[in-house]
C-alpha cells in the first residue's frame, strides 16, 4: 500500500537529500522556500490573529530563510513584525541569503529579544538542522520565552529538538504549533519531541512525490492499521472457535493470579477462539472461582508442561504477567521455543543474567517471539544497546529485534514496534492514562490473542499496541486495568 506523503517519516538527513534532489531536478529551490515561509505566515495569522506583534527568530541556515520569507509575508498584511537573527545574516548563502535580501525588515541580534505580552514567536532558528546542543545564547532565549509563556510557532521542528530521535539537545522551545513540509520526521512522533511540537501541520510545498519517496525509509512509519490490517485474520461466516486459535496464559501462584486473568480476558476480547489459563495446582481454586469464559488447566512444573505440549494444537502462549522471574520462568520459556510466545514482565526479567540463552532458543526459523520490555526491562535484556546514546529509540528497537529474532514492543507513551528485518513503527495513539497497573498485562493478552488467530508476530505486536491505545481512549481518564479489558475490541 502506498502511503500518502504526509504519512511518511523522513530523517533530517533524508529530507536534506530530498531538497538537494529537488534542486538538481530543476525545481526552483527558492520557490520552495517561498511556499514554506508563506505557509508559516498563514498559520500565524490563522491561529493567532490577535497577536500584538509577531516576533520572527531567524537562524543561519535555510530554516532562517523560511523565517525571513514569513516575516516579509506577515508585514505585507499590515501586522507588526519584529525580526531577530542569529549571527551575521550578511554571511548567509544560497536561498537563505536571497530570502534575507528580499526581507525589508531590519533585524536585531537574537540575544536582545525580550518577550512582551501579546508576542507570538516564530521559531525559525534551527529546525531539523541541529545535531549538537544549542548555543548558550539560544538556550537563554528559549528560557525567557518559556518563562513569559509566549506562544511559539516552530518552523519544521522546535529549535533544540533532534528530528531523528525526538530528544532535546540541551534546551528546546515548547511550541504551540509546528509547521513542517512534505513529511514528518521521527522526532515529531518520538517523545519528548511529540509534546514539544504541539499541534503539527504538514504542508505540501510542491516537491514531487517521486523524489520524496525515493529517499523515504520504507521500513519506518507511524503505527496505523494501514501497516498491518491485511495481515490480521478476519472472521468469516464459516469461522468457529477452533479456527480462531487457542491462547494459553500462564498464571502465577495463589497470591499472584490477577495479571494472568487480565491477559487471558484481553486475548479473548481480541478474538482468540479459546483461552486457557495454565495454573499451578495451588492456584487452581483461586482462578476457578474467578473464571467463566476462560478455561483452566493445571501445570505444576516443566515436566507437566512438556507433557501437555504433546498436543500440537497448543501454539500460542503468554508468559510473564504475575508469574515470577526465577528458574521456573526460564524453564517454561525454553520449553516453548518452538511455539509462538509473548514474553512479558517477569518472563523478560527471568533472563536478565543471560539474555543470550533466550535469543538462542528462538534464533532459528520464522519470528515467533514477541518481547514487550519497558525501559528498565529493555536495559536488562539489551544493556549495550540501551546505553548507546547515539541511537534513537527506533534504532534501539530495531537493533534489539535483529539480535533476538523477535518482534520488539519497546513500551512507553511512544512505543516502538520493531521486526528483525528492520521494519519499525512508532505508536502515537496511546493516551497518558494508560500508565496504570495491569495495563501491560492487557497488552500482552491482546497480542497473544492476535497471534493465536494466525497473525505474524510483528503485525500482531503492532496491531496489539494500536488496539491497546484505542481501548485506552474508549475507557477514558481514570481507567483501571479492568476498565481497559472491557474496552478491548477485536478488529
TrEMBL record:
Protein residues bound to (6S)-NADPHX: 62-66, 127-133, 156, 259, 322, 374, 441
Domain (YjeF C-terminal): residue spans on this chain: 224-491
Residues where K(+) binds: 63, 123, 159
Gene3D superfamilies found in the cross-reference section: 3.40.1190.20, YjeF N-terminal domain
EC number: 4.2.1.136, 5.1.99.6
Functional note: Bifunctional enzyme that catalyzes the epimerization of the S- and R-forms of NAD(P)HX and the dehydration of the S-form of NAD(P)HX at the expense of ADP, which is converted to AMP. This allows the repair of both epimers of NAD(P)HX, a damaged form of NAD(P)H that is a result of enzymatic or heat-dependent hydration.
Family membership noted in the UniProt record: Belongs to the NnrD/CARKD family.
Protein name: Bifunctional NAD(P)H-hydrate repair enzyme
Lineage per the UniProt record: Bacteria, Pseudomonadati, Pseudomonadota, Alphaproteobacteria, Hyphomicrobiales
Name of the gene: nnrD
Amino acid at each position: 500500500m502506498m502511503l500518502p506523503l504526509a504519512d511518511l517519516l523522513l530523517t533530517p538527513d533524508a529530507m536534506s537529500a530530498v531538497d538537494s534532489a529537488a534542486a538538481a531536478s530543476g525545481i526552483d529551490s527558492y520557490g520552495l522556500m517561498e511556499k514554506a515561509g508563506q505557509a508559516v505566515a498563514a498559520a500565524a495569522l490563522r491561529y493567532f490573529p490577535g497577536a500584538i506583534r509577531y516576533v520572527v527568530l531567524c537562524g543561519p541556515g535555510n530554516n532562517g530563510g523560511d523565517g525571513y520569507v514569513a516575516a516579509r509575508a506577515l508585514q505585507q498584511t499590515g501586522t507588526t513584525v519584529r525580526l531577530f537573527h542569529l549571527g551575521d545574516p550578511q554571511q548567509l548563502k544560497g536561498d537563505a541569503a536571497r530570502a534575507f535580501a528580499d526581507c525589508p525588515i531590519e533585524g536585531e541580534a537574537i540575544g536582545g529579544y525580550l518577550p512582551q505580552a501579546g508576542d507570538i514567536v516564530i521559531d525559525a532558528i534551527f529546525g531539523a538542522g541541529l545535531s549538537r546542543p544549542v548555543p548558550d545564547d539560544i538556550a537563554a532565549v528559549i528560557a525567557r520565552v518559556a518563562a513569559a509563556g509566549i506562544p511559539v510557532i516552530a518552523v519544521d521542528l522546535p529549535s533544540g529538538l533532534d528530528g531523528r530521535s525526538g530528544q532535546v539537545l540541551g534546551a528546546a522551545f515548547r511550541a504551540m504549533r509546528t509547521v513542517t513540509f512534505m513529511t514528518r520526521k521521527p522526532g515529531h512522533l518520538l517523545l519528548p519531541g511529540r509534546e514539544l511540537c504541539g499541534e503539527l501541520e504538514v504542508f505540501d510545498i510542491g516537491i514531487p512525490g517521486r523524489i520524496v519517496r525515493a529517499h523515504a525509509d520504507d521500513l519506518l512509519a507511524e503505527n496505523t492499521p494501514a501497516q498491518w490490517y491485511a495481515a490480521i485474520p478476519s472472521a468469516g461466516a464459516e469461522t468457529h472457535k477452533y479456527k480462531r486459535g487457542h491462547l494459553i496464559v500462564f498464571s502465577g501462584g495463589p497470591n499472584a493470579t490477577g495479571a494472568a486473568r487480565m491477559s487471558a480476558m484481553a486475548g479473548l476480547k481480541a478474538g482468540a477462539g479459546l483461552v486457557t489459563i495454565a495454573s499451578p495446582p495451588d492456584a487452581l481454586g483461586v482462578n476457578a472461582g474467578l473464571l467463566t469464559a476462560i478455561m483452566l488447566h493445571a501445570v505444576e512444573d516443566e515436566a507437566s508442561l512438556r507433557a501437555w505440549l504433546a498436543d500440537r494444537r497448543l501454539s500460542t502462549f503468554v508468559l510473564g504477567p504475575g508469574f515470577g522471574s526465577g528458574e521456573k520462568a526460564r524453564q517454561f520459556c525454553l520449553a516453548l521455543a518452538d511455539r509462538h510466545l509473548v514474553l512479558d514482565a517477569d518472563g523478560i526479567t527471568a533472563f536478565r543474567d543471560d539474555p543470550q540463552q533466550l535469543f538462542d532458543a528462538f534464533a532459528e526459523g520464522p519470528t515467533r517471539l514477541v518481547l514487550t520490555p519497558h525501559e528498565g526491562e529493555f536495559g536488562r535484556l539489551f544493556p549495550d544497546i540501551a546505553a548507546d546514546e547515539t541511537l534513537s529509540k527506533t534504532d534501539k528497537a530495531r537493533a534489539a529485534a535483529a539480535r533476538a529474532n523477535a518482534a520488539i514492543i519497546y513500551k512507553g507513551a511512544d512505543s516502538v514496534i520493531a521486526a528483525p528485518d528492520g521494519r519499525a513503527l512508532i505508536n502515537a495513539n496511546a493516551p497518558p492514562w494508560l500508565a496504570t497497573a495491569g495495563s501491560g498485562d492487557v497488552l500482552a493478552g491482546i497480542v497473544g490473542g492476535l497471534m493465536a488467530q494466525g497473525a505474524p508476530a510483528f503485525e500482531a505486536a503492532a496491531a496489539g499496541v494500536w488496539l491497546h491505545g484505542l481501548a485506552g481512549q474508549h475507557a477514558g481518564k481514570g481507567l483501571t486495568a479492568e476498565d481497559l479489558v472491557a474496552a478491548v475490541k477485536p478488529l
